[in-house]
Amino acid sequence: MAAENTSAAASGHVQPEIDVPALTEVLDGEYAGIRDLVRANLVTHASVLEEAEELGVDAFRERVRDLVVAMAATGQTGMGFPREYGGGGDIGASIAAFETLAFGDLSVLVKVGVQFGLFGGAILHLGTERHHAAYLPDLITGKLMGCFAMTETGHGSNVQALGTVARYDAAAQEFVITTRGDQARKDYIGNAARHAELAVVFAQLEVAGRSEGVHAFVVPVRVDGEVAPGVRIEDDGRKMGLNGVDNGRIRFDGVRVPREALLNRFADVTPEGVYESSIDNPHRRFFTMLGTLVQGRVCVGGAGVNVAKVALAIATKYAVRRRQFEAASDGEEQLLLDYGLHQRRLLPLVARTYALHFAQDVVRTQLHEVFSATEDDAPARRRLEARAAGTKALGTWHATRVVQECREACGGAGYLAVNRFAALKADSDIFTTFEGDNHVLLQLVAKGLLTHYASEFEDLDQLGLVRHVTGLAVETVIEKASVHKMLERVRDLLPGGDDWDQEAGLLDSEYQLAMLRYREEHMLAGLARRLKRGIDRKRNPGVVFSQVQDHVIALAHAHVERLVLEAFVDKVRSLPGSGNKAALGLLCDLFALSTIEADRAWFMEHGRLTVQRSKAISREVNALCRKVRPLAVDLVDAWGVPAEMLRAPDLVG
Amino acid sequence: MAAENTSAAASGHVQPEIDVPALTEVLDGEYAGIRDLVRANLVTHASVLEEAEELGVDAFRERVRDLVVAMAATGQTGMGFPREYGGGGDIGASIAAFETLAFGDLSVLVKVGVQFGLFGGAILHLGTERHHAAYLPDLITGKLMGCFAMTETGHGSNVQALGTVARYDAAAQEFVITTRGDQARKDYIGNAARHAELAVVFAQLEVAGRSEGVHAFVVPVRVDGEVAPGVRIEDDGRKMGLNGVDNGRIRFDGVRVPREALLNRFADVTPEGVYESSIDNPHRRFFTMLGTLVQGRVCVGGAGVNVAKVALAIATKYAVRRRQFEAASDGEEQLLLDYGLHQRRLLPLVARTYALHFAQDVVRTQLHEVFSATEDDAPARRRLEARAAGTKALGTWHATRVVQECREACGGAGYLAVNRFAALKADSDIFTTFEGDNHVLLQLVAKGLLTHYASEFEDLDQLGLVRHVTGLAVETVIEKASVHKMLERVRDLLPGGDDWDQEAGLLDSEYQLAMLRYREEHMLAGLARRLKRGIDRKRNPGVVFSQVQDHVIALAHAHVERLVLEAFVDKVRSLPGSGNKAALGLLCDLFALSTIEADRAWFMEHGRLTVQRSKAISREVNALCRKVRPLAVDLVDAWGVPAEMLRAPDLVG
Asked: Do A550 and B611 touch (CB under 8 A)?
């Protein structure tokens, strides 16, 4: 094998060498400090990985709570809150800390997300100073635990249709919170079954008999450890994973809270019962409120990418230890990673993990800038929301796929709990659903792209068609340029005219980018055409939408993949010349070409790939896998997953 | 929606109606009786689904053992053994019983597989009358528990490389069993950690200093509940799933067993120490021994298909209850299954499940015939082995994919343990690995197809190249005809000459079959060419093989999919005209076209699909989904999964 591997060098390829610590610096970026703090905390508390198996549900929930409080004391979990209340005042650092925490037990991660991201985030972003002063200091330390009561049994993604009601009683100057029917009970609420004292409850606000839409209220659900009067809490019981998080169901039977319990940053009710808001349009008001919660999606997407790193680190290290079947020549069995198939299974996933890591850097930076700015930049906020939705979907699906592939690549050993995949798989499974179902999120992304067409196809909004595309967040234009202009822009990218892409080198990143841009923009124009045709024919908009829904998802997917590739290419270009730059260049090519390869049918169907070129891409992916193979261990080591988090003594020890 | 749905009828399509009990009869076939017995037993013991969550590992293992013994008493688990020892004397029925058991808790299923399939099967097929008389009566009742000690820590798929040694001591007329090094310890062995009294141990037989290859021995591992002297047993501990099965590791430190402990159907050692076998070629002898164990693969493949049925039944029923987002017209939220995307996610999987069900019927029948025959039919046995390997791989990957898609399609509710997916996912995960890793099995399938080339490329065997394709079972020719003849045969299938397939109706099953046959045979010829080219260039065979390994897997996959489609088409054709036949016809079209669609890039690359036709296939898949949508609940009901096995009160109740 060795002789054959070096033969690649003869053909002009110089095998790069990786400087692992330097590559870790590139990956950790400006947040190396907080990431190292989290790594150290993970190692300190590494026993939780075994405790997750050994303890019963009740004991494990308490253990996870204690761990969350212990980590809070190090400052790790409070980075996103203002300094005056005991936080770290650095939103980007809070995301980086959360991402890094995903190397460890995921119940701890999710409990941190519930307490500081969802509950704390709602108090911070939807509340005003009176709420901040009252709650932030104690919630940052974990002394005050809370939950985020949005989802209902009958309403997950469609938040505008929630059934819980908060009626204002002007005489008492109180809100009366009521669960109307079983479908309206709050469900799957983390921290609800056991630890939350307060809940941020999302409910339809009724003032003077008039519905003002969904608003958030602070409602005590436990007093001195006992469930509060009028509140009923059920335990959601055992789950596929994350059994250290106490999910539960909450019903409210006319629970009264004072007028000040309304989180009133965007809307308020006067003592006399007059509804007031700085945002006139109720639809826009709703999405503005929800939009402040985008941080959860950015966090979960990044956590998904880091879950993938843990799985790939184990599978890669195993594949350079484990031998199976003889090589013909010498009688020794061959290492798994020297098989072409095994390279094909793991290495494009390593490349995609790097790509998603750098894409996560971009969205984290956007989030940090939007939320650190003193003035609101609405278009930047919309861009962030769409991007967060898209990277969350791709990052979490990637985690599910990678964990499965890596478990299978470790065979029977991968099935033993001690070897980590059991927890990784069970705990991360829900990532594709919570903080927004991935399919709904991609429709949200597509809506952002389509909304631009509203002026051309004004019937779209009249028929309520765009509402079908999603009920969530992004409501305005994502891209300023018209699609026709975009297509021209793509042509501008092809230096040799319209046929350039059929001649360009496969390893030319301009070619790779042009391919993904063309796909996205062609899909956008095609989808708009289909929608318009349906409307022109006066068809039922629900049916029209249902029939193009696969195109909607494909468009969003193409859009996000283009953003991911741009992030990777930009990153590689920004690095000074070095072995690391060369290695990342190989990896970026592998990501780009394996992405094009996976959708090569579409490119052929749309005249962007000849049969010959399509086959050449598959050959090049194989060739890139062989070039990346000698770098594989360094590439996974550079992620800096603490050895204690890999566990897996039989696989990597 | 209703008005739009019936508009399909206006275009000539008559929506069929399904007779559910009659369709269940078609599915259950000749084994309706044993399947209903198993269904009844599952319902009787339905509480095990909750106990799997509630009991600790030790208690659950005992509970599962008790259940296995209780089921054995009904005759359900002994169908495959001869009547004279207390069995049912019907091998096909034993497979059908096992498949049906997969509707329930999978620890019970796997423990049944270990005890009666692996341990009992080894005694039956590798032993002779002395072993049958000594062990079968008690193992059939479950009084005598045993384990199947083949896999070692360092050797899974490559059984010929096992490290355990059985040396014959002629003076004592005993075999001495020894574990040579950590990599040779038996590992992941079901029943080993707790319940097995006997082990069938696979070890390298040494007689008079000469190695005779791997043979099987009956070795007591526990005596009166205590681990036997010289035997060391460790517990494999908690696993991702199947925690009702006590997997463990076994080491042997010079354990002595009498000469009669050798399972001597195919080879024996005389008291004086002379090795004798009715099969001269050691390679052939090894594969003949292993080949008798093919039943395990047939069982696991069928179990995978039935796991998929449970998941799809839950997700389909949920999708016709759950509403999400408003339809534009009437203010009521729309059912999930009326969304085009949701149809796309679930209905092709329903179609593939039916296809794999009927393919399983074929392989089960082949198994029954081969093992019920009074004379050995070697070619039939080889065909069976290849087919079993292929359907096992596709059936178990299907299970993994379906369970994941269905969990996601049930959102957060799908994550709660009470809703079944937690156990389905964790327990079935290992199906892709045990009884042969799926990738290794597909290489085995490909080897069968390739071996035919050996006469043309005789260097293949000299270079040991074929050995790389797999170390397992099939060793001789699968197909008699040469590839060139096969290609001619395909052309004969195209009535209008070579271009017929570009004009034929997409819903013509001859067209669909011709496409899958063409793909397979083109891949076979192409792979043989690549291998020959590598050999002609005197390249390292290991490297040549590594570089074509993705083609090897693709070929095998194409081969098995062709067999699956043939089974489905044959089944539909065999039915009398009825609504059921029409419904299965739609489903068969959906399976065929979604299969072609998934690989449409290949068909375009190889000139078998124009761009226009490729797009037409995607449109037709969408249209078929809409036609199947009204039949979906009947289609999943016809599988006859007992309601108690669906559990999921919130999703289907």
From this structure: no
Domain match, B142 and B154 both: no
How far apart, in whole angstroms, are the C-alpha atoms of residue A630 and residue A498?
Answer: 38
List, in sequence order, the alpha helices (H) in A373-495. 378-409, 421-428, 438-451, 459-462, 465-469, 483-493
CATH number reported for the structural domain that contains residue B632 in this entry? 1.20.140.10
Residues A165 and A139 in one domain: no
Task: Give pLDDT tens digits for A585-631.
Answer: 999 999 999 999 999 999 999 999 999 999 999 999 999 999 999 99
Domain CATH number, residue A130 = 1.10.540.10
Of A154, A416, A601, which has the smallest distance from its Cβ to B239's Cβ?
A416
A435 labelled catalytic: yes
Please name the residue that has the structure tokens 């449409």.
B600
Q: Is the pLDDT score of B63 beyond 70? A: yes
Domain count, chain B: 3
User: For A31-190, where are the alpha helices, taking DSSP H only?
Assistant: 32-44, 48-54, 57-73, 91-101, 106-112, 120-126, 129-141
In a domain, A412, yes or no: yes
Q: B324 and chain A: CB distance < 8 Å anywhere?
A: yes
A110, B46, B85, B227 from B142: Cα distances, Å: 44, 20, 13, 19
Are B72 and B210 in the same domain?
no
Examine the domain organization and report whether B299 and B437 are in the same domain.
yes
Residues A514 and A465 in one domain: yes
ipTM of the complex: 0.91
The least confident of A68-77, B211-220, B256-265, B456-465 is B456-465
Q: B174-188, B414-428, B531-545: which range is least confident on average? A: B531-545
Together in a domain, A480 and A551: yes
Q: For residues A141 and A68, give the distance between their C-alpha atoms in angstroms, rounded to a whole number.
A: 9
Give the span between the Cα atoms of A208 and A109, in whole angstroms: 42
Residue A545 has a pLDDT of 79
- Restricting to B residues 519-578, those with a Cβ less than 8 Å away from any Cβ of A are 539-543, 545-550, 552-553
Q: Taking residues B259-286, what's their average pLDDT?
A: 95
Give the domain extent around A121. 17-147
Residue B39 lies in a domain: yes
Q: What is the mean pLDDT of chain A?
A: 89
The verdict on residue A580 lying in a domain is yes
**Cβ within 8 Å of residue B306, ≥6 positions away:** B99, B100, B102, B103, B639
